[in-house]
Amino acid sequence: MDNSIPALLPRGEGHQFLLYGDSCSGVPGALHAKTFASVNAVVRRLEPQPEFILFPGDEIIGLTPDADALRAQWRYWFDTEMAWLDRATTPIWHTTGNHTTCDAMSEAIFREVLDLPDNGPPAQTGLCYFVRRNDLLMVFVNTLWSGLGGEGHVETEWLEATLKEQSDAGHKLVLGHHPVFPVNGFSGPYQREIGHEYAEPFWDILVRENVLAYLCSHILAFDVQVHRGVLQICTAGAGTAHRMPEGIEYLHCVQAALDEQGLRYQVLDAEGVVRERLEWPLPNADRWRQLPLGETEAPFSGILQSGRAIELRLKGRAPTTDFASAQTIFSAFTPGSIAALWLGLRGPKQTLTLIVGRDPGRSPSYWLGPDLPPGDDFDIHVAFCPDMGPGGVLYRSHGNARWSSFNSATARGLEQLSWPQQWSIGHGQHGTGDRRFRGASLSIQISGTER
C-alpha cells in the first residue's frame, strides 16, 4: 500500500522544504529516541522529499560537561537516527540551541561537528551564518551567544548588515532558536524568549528589511503569529516527549512551499495527519457588507472551516474622555448565555480587546490589541483566521497591509469556536445600556474570505 504523503509544491518557480526542531535525542534507547523516530517516519513518507531541511536547534539532549559524551550524541544523531537522510542531496541547516550550545565547550563542539558556513560574524563563526539559494536568503542567528551572556542574548548588527547586503533576495527567512514573542502564554526573557532589550530592535530589522518570517523552536508547540507583517513560526515537535501545554500540542513536522504568491505550509503529526495549514499572505477582503447597529441576525454561524477567514472593518471615534469600563463594538451570543465572542474597548487605555468564552463554566480567553486614544478617529481592520490558532486574531490600520496578531496567553485559537446566530453592534446582549460604545460614528463592515 502506498502510504506516501503529498508534499505542497511551489506554484511555478520556488522552494519546497521541511522545518522541524527540538528532538533532544542522540542517546540510544533514551526517552526521546522513539518519538523522534516516529516523526522521522512521517518525513520519509513525503513525496517528493524536501529540497532542504531547516532544524532550529536542540537536535541532541546535550547539557553535559563531558565533551566526549557530547560528540557521541552528535555521532548517534547523524549516523543512526538521521542515517536515512542523504545530506548531499538534501542539505540540513541548523541553529544553535540551549541543549547544544550551553557554554563555550559545547559551542566549540557544535562548530566542529556541524561544519556550517563560515560567513558569520568573526566571533561567532559556525554559530551564525547565512545561506543563499537563488532568490531565497536564510539567515541563521545565535540567540544564546556566550560572548553576550548566554541564553536569550543575540547580536543584531551582523543580522542587519547581512540582510542589507543581500537585499536583492526575493524571499528572506531568519532562523533562531528562541522565540521573540511569547508562545501559548509561556513567557520569560532569557529563558522562553530572547531578552526584552533585544526584541524590539531585532524585530524592527526584520520589518525594515522585508523579512517574510522568523522561524524558531524552543517552546514545545506549534505556533504561528504575525507582528507588523512578519510571521513568527515556532515548531518544536520533532521528538521531545513533553508538550507546552500537554493535551493540546503534539509531535509534528512542518512541510512548506514558497513561491511568488507566498508561503504555504502543512503541519503533520506523528501519524502523518495534517493538523494545521496556512497560506500567507491572507487574501484581500472583498464583497463588504454593512452591519446595522444594535442586535441583528448573523450573516453566518457555526464553525469557520479551514481556509476561511472573517474580516471586520471598524470605523468611528473613540470617546473624548477615558472610559475604563467595557464598551461593546461587536458581540456574538446565544440568548441566555454569556457572549461566545465579545470585541470592544476595556481599561483606562481603552484597549481593543477580544474575549472568547468557549466552554460553559470556564474562564474566557483574552486577546489584546491596540489602544485607542480618547477622541481619536479610528479605522481598523480585525481578521479572524482559525488556521493560525491563537495568532489568528489580527489587526491592521486601514491602508496598511501589514497585519499584527493580538497578544494572548492562550494555547487555543478560534478553530473550534461555533459562532452564534445572534450578533450585536454597539452594545452588549442585554439592550442598549449594556456596555454600550461611548464614542461616536461607529460603523462595522464584514467580509468573508476563502482560499
Number of domains: 2
Overall average residue pLDDT = 95
Give the termini separation. 31 Å
CATH architecture of the largest domain: 4-Layer Sandwich
Q: Which quaternary structure do these chains form?
A: single chain
What name is given to the CATH topology of the largest domain?
Purple Acid Phosphatase, chain A, domain 2
Q: How does the overall form come out from the CA principal axes? A: elongated
| Rg value | 23 Å
User: What spatial order of strands do you see in the largest sheet?
Assistant: 16-28-19-20-21-22-26
Strand segment count:
29
Query: In CATH, what is the homologous superfamily of the largest domain?
Result: Metallo-dependent phosphatases
Give the DSSP E fraction (strand runs of 2 or more residues).
25-35%
**Low-confidence sequence ranges:** none
Query: Would you tell me the structural class of the helices and strands?
Result: mainly beta
Helix content: 10-25%
Walkthrough of the structure:
- Helix 2 runs parallel beside helix 3 (104-114).
- Helix content is 13%, strand content 33%.
- It has 451 residues and is mainly beta.
- A 7-stranded antiparallel sheet has the order 16-28-19-20-21-22-26, with no helix packed on it. A 6-stranded mixed sheet has the order 5-4-2-12-13-14, with helices on one face. The chain has a 6-stranded mixed sheet with strand order 6-7-8-9-11-10.
- The longest helix has 15 residues, at 67-81.
- The chain has helices spanning 33-43, 67-81, 104-114, 157-165, 196-208; strands at residues 5-6, 14-19, 46-47, 52-55, 92-94, 129-133, 136-140, 171-175, 213-216, 222-227, 230-235, 252-259, 262-269, 274-280, 289-291, 294-297, 302-303, 308-317, 327-333, 341-346, 351-356, 365-371, 377-384, 393-397, 404-405, 407-408, 418-419, 422-425, 440-450.
- The model has no long low-confidence stretch (mean pLDDT 95).
- It folds into 2 domains: 5-280, 4-Layer Sandwich (Purple Acid Phosphatase, chain A, domain 2); 289-450, Jelly Rolls.
